[in-house]
Every structure is written in C-alpha cells, then in structure tokens.
Amino acid sequence: MSAETLLSNERLDAIRERIRTEGRVVAAVLAVEFGVSEDTVRRDLRMLAAEGHCERVYGGAIRPRHAPTTLRRRMSEASEAKQRLGRLAASLTESGQTVFIDAGSTNLEIARHLPRDRGLTVVTNAPSVAEALSDQTGVEIAMVGGRFDPRLGSCLGGQTIEWLERLFPDIAFIGTCGLSLEAGLSAFSAEEAALKRIVAARTRRLVVAVTGEKLGLSAPFQISGTETVSHLVTDDPDHPLCRELAELGASIISETRSGHAASS
Amino acid sequence: MSAETLLSNERLDAIRERIRTEGRVVAAVLAVEFGVSEDTVRRDLRMLAAEGHCERVYGGAIRPRHAPTTLRRRMSEASEAKQRLGRLAASLTESGQTVFIDAGSTNLEIARHLPRDRGLTVVTNAPSVAEALSDQTGVEIAMVGGRFDPRLGSCLGGQTIEWLERLFPDIAFIGTCGLSLEAGLSAFSAEEAALKRIVAARTRRLVVAVTGEKLGLSAPFQISGTETVSHLVTDDPDHPLCRELAELGASIISETRSGHAASS
DNA sequence: CCATATCATGCGCGATATTGCATGTTTTTT
DNA sequence: AAAAAACATGCAATATCGCGCATGATATGG
Questions:
Q1: With contact defined as beta carbons under 8 Å apart, do B103 and B154 qualify?
Q2: How confident is the model at residue A1 (pLDDT cuts 50, 70, 90)?
Q3: In the predicted model, what is the mean pLDDT of chain B?
Q4: Whose CA is closest to A62, among B51, B44, B118, B7?
Q5: Do A254 and A233 form a contact (C-beta atoms < 8 A)?
Q6: Structural domain contains residue A258
Q7: Cβ(B186)–Cβ(B216) under 8 Å?
Q8: How many Cβ atoms sit within 10 Å of the Cβ of residue B7?
Q9: B141 vs chain A: nearest CA distance in angstroms?
Q10: Where is average pLDDT lowest: A130-134, B17-21, B129-133, B255-259?
Q11: Domain count along chain A
C-alpha cells in the first residue's frame, strides 16, 4: 500500500476496509498515504458516509455506531402520566394472585407501585422489572429467561415462549405499541407480538395500561383483538376508543380530578 | 490510552464510555488523560449532559441518576478497586466467546467493562447484568430465568439449574463469598453454591474476581475446590493464597502500579 | 483524427468547528 | 468571611470543511 496510483474505486475500497478494521481514519493521514489531496479524501468519506459505511467526524471518520434509542433513554423520561397509570394499574391486583408484567416503561411503573402486602407472585420477562422489585419483601419473583433484546429490554425467543406456554397468570399487564379497533393490540415486531399473544391467551384478566397517545394507533403485528382486553388503564378516558372498548365489556380505568380511580 | 491525537468525537465517545462503565468522571483527570484543556472537557461534558448521557456535578460528571448528589458522595458507590477488577477481568474475553456472568457487584463491573467489538455472547442469571449490557450493541445477551432472589439479585432454583446444565460457556465469571485453600470457593447458601458449581464444572475457563478482603475467608457451602479456578483476578496479588493458587496452575491477574495488567 | 462529454482531481476562498486563554461568576471548602 | 476550586462566557487562533471552478485525463462519437 504505497504511493502507487490507485484507481479511485480501489481507494474507496481501501478506505472502507480501513474504517472497518481500524474503526477510525484521519483525513490528513489518508491524503498523504494515497498521494491525493485532502479534498479528495473528504469527498470519498462523504460518499462512504452516504452509503452508511462510516460516520464523518471533524478530522476524519469513524465506524458507524448505531444505538441511539434504548430503553434507558425512554425510562429517564418516565412521565408523571405513566407513574399515575402505574399506580392505578397496580391497584387492580388482589391477594395471592400470580401477576405477569411485561417490559416497557409504563409496565415498569406498575411494578414499582405493586402493593407488597398481598403476597403476590410476579412473573416477568423484563430484567428491569425484576430489578425494580428487588427491594420489596413480600413479593415472590420469577424471571422468564431467553434471548435478551436490549432495545425492548425484555426476553424473547423460543426459550421464553416455551416457558410462558406453561404459565397461567391470574392477571397480566402487557404493553402495546398500538391499540385500535381494527388492529386490536399490536406490536412492532413479530416475535414481540407472539410472546404477548401467548400471555394474553392464558391470563384470566388482561390489563393494558397506555397513555392517550397510543390510542387509535396500530403497529404492523397484531397481538390480539380488542375483545381480549378486560381492563384498559389510560389517562384519556374520553377518547372514542374507550367507549367502544367499554361496549365490548372492558373496564375503562382512569383517574378523576380529585385523584381517585374511576371505572366505567 | 496516552497523549494520542484523538479526534474530538472520539474523545466524546471515550468519555461517554467512561461514564457508562465507571459511573463517574473527573474533569481534571480527563483533561490530562486526553491532553486537552479542562475547558474542552467541560464543553464535552456539557454536550453529553444535553444528550442525557451524563449528569454534571461539581468537579466532573456522573451517570444519569434522578437524585442529585455530590461527586464526593457518588465516589463510594462502587469502589474503585472493584471497577479495576472489572476492567481487568473483562479483558480476558476473546473474540466470539460465550461468556457466563454471575450476579454480584464485582461481576456487574465486569459486565460494564466488557468489550463490545468481539462478538461476545453473554449468558447471565442476574437481571442487573442484562440491564448493564442493554445499551451495548454487538453483544448477544441470554437471560437465564428462574426464581429471582432479591437479596442476591440473581435467579436461582430448579428452573435455573436445569437451564445451566445445558450450557457450556467458554469462560465464566462467578462470584464467591469466600476463597480459601481448605474450603475452596464457597457461598452463603446451598442453592447459590449448587448453581455456581454447575457453571464451574462446565466452563473451559473459570475466572474469579475478588477483592483482597475475601481471600482466606470461607462461607458455609462449598462450590468447588480451588483447583477449578483457572484465573484469579485480584487487587492483592501478594496474598499468600495467590502463590498457592499459582502453584495449582491458576493465573493470578492484577494491576501494576503503572496501570497495566500483570499475570504470574 | 478531432471535437466533445464525462469524470476525478486539486486549488482557492469563505464558512464553520474546535480549542485554549482571559475574564468574571458561582460553588465549595477552610 | 475569605480562599480556592470549578464554572460559564466571550474572543481570537487555528484547523477543518464545503463549494465552485479550473485542469487534465479518459471516454465517446462523428
């Protein structure tokens, strides 16, 4: 790799390779190394960046690192609304029940607000939920294992599903990416939907807690129809969808101005 | 990590990483470490804080946390010794390996320091470990389920053991409550010991990372003899037990004064 | 063979980013 | 309350960047 005259594509390939193997390149270094001007190198880097093969930074380029959206990010902005939903939903549990809690920021709030004097048994596929309960006494916790998806913050896959197929919880809190009349409960991935579907089919009570922004939305993969929902906890009880769900037999639970729960 | 010429964004990444793994950074230290002025470091920290990747405190920055604390107070949360052990132990992993990580504060530090560019697969029975890895890309994570013990922060019981009996990790990091010649590795509960024993018997490399205070101690339930330990990572390499372990074939790994790893 | 089109490249120039320093303010410590 | 440390802000020096344009080389077509 000397100052030989390299065809432009070859140079591009070489730079691509360098970025891939070394993780970083410096424009000025590449310029002297290939015997071209820095402008040319910058042009190359611009192309590679457009292809997604690198990320441009001041002075050169680095290997693309893609991971901006994590659960942690969403968690830090646990809105007051979600905390209220969590408290409301948690109050639906009854003594001695076995409770399934799904992953998600709202469900995490449910876990945080679970009463600790009812001898509950909590089953979850979300490590964050188990963690949140770890300072509580009086709550039995079972963790469902499997492949852990960092983006969702929960366990998925065959292992997980196999386990859940043998579980019949008294009450289940599952998260949803969308809730609408046509699409029912829906999720962003097929695997996620499959898992939630298993749980929804086996529980005696299915509780869905969502902020108003998700009402009326639908995601690509259906979990189940709206008729499977027995309780909807929301901060927007006046949404038309709520009335329709109520007619299908679901309880709509929200907070009144004075802070008490109301159900219709 | 010396006075290399680092691209400014790389420095940002590096600081981000330090905050993620170590929980706290000191502006003055970063300044000399990267060979830039403190002003520049502060600017970086301001940016990271704006992105939500850290929380600024007087003197530096800490991992985002909702309760405001001083840097001084924060220093005591995870001792520096454990962080060093974590970093050292994590460097023992090799490309493509399947890694088991046990529960415990030291092991959590190992997880935090795991390299993300080696295509590692991590198996753990501790939700906190899964959580700690959840903002990493390039690490496959498998969670071993079971009954969750809040006091230990890990999953135990028949379910867990059944799963682990089918696992043969390349390398395993397990925690121990005591390490002595007579009692070997030992734990405070029979169930805990049984679980660790399963893992110890199936891994090709067994790494134990302990602070010096645990050397020579023994807990009621034996996990296995000292001869099963292939690597001992410690901050007290002069302890007599280390020499004896070395004679049994274990590698003793610790940090020299200058900050580099040494093994005997 | 010549005219023209196309392309990669290098150079100049104004714009932008990064950095360190000076200055004044806020926070912590004594 | 005073001293020290850390901090934010404005500013100037330097480095890097993007863009337009000229140049030369190669390809295409008559």
A1: yes
A2: very low
A3: 88
A4: B7
A5: yes
A6: yes
A7: no
A8: 18
A9: 5
A10: B255-259
A11: 2
CATH of residue B29's domain is: 1.10.10.10
B137 and A66 within 8 Å at the Cβ level: the answer is: yes
A111 touching B, CB under 8 A?
Answer: no
CB A89 within 8 A of CB A69: no
- Could you tell me the CATH number of the domain that includes residue B243? 3.40.50.1360
Same domain? B109 vs B92: yes
Q: Kindly indicate the confidence band of residue A116, based on its pLDDT and cuts at 50, 70 and 90.
A: confident
Tell me, yes or no, whether B13 lies in a domain. Answer: yes
| Pick from A51, A50, A54: nearest CA to A66 | A54
Contact in structure between B98 and B92 (CB atoms under 8 Å) = no
A208: in domain: yes
B95 CA, D16 C1': separation in Å? 36
Query: Domain ends where: A37, A62, A87?
Result: A62
Q: Which tens digit of pLDDT belongs to each residue from A72-81?
A: 545 445 567 8
Contact (Cβ atoms closer than 8 angstroms) between residue B232 and residue B253: yes
Domain span at B230: 80-263
Beta bridge partners of A206: A172
Contacts of A124 (CB under 8 A, 6+ apart): A100, A101, A102, A103, A111, A130, A141, A142, A143, A144
pLDDT of residue A61: 93
Strands (E), B33-177: 55-57, 60-62, 98-101, 120-124, 139-143, 146-149, 154-156, 171-173
Residue type, A79: S
CB within 8 A of B257, min separation 6: which ones? none
Tokens of A52: 């997604």
CA of B206 to C1' of C14 (A): 62
> Can you tell me the distance from the alpha carbon of A24 to that of A146, in angstroms, rounded to the nearest whole number?
35
Do A173 and A98 lie in one domain? The reply is yes
Question: DSSP letters along A153-166, please?
Answer: TEEESHHHHHHHTT
Res. B77 pLDDT band, cuts 50 70 90: low
Interface residues for strand D (CB within 7 Å) are: A 27-28, 38-39, 42, 46, 56-60; B 27-28, 38-39, 42-43, 46, 56-60
Residue of B223, B222, B220, B229 lying closest to B247 (CA atoms): B229
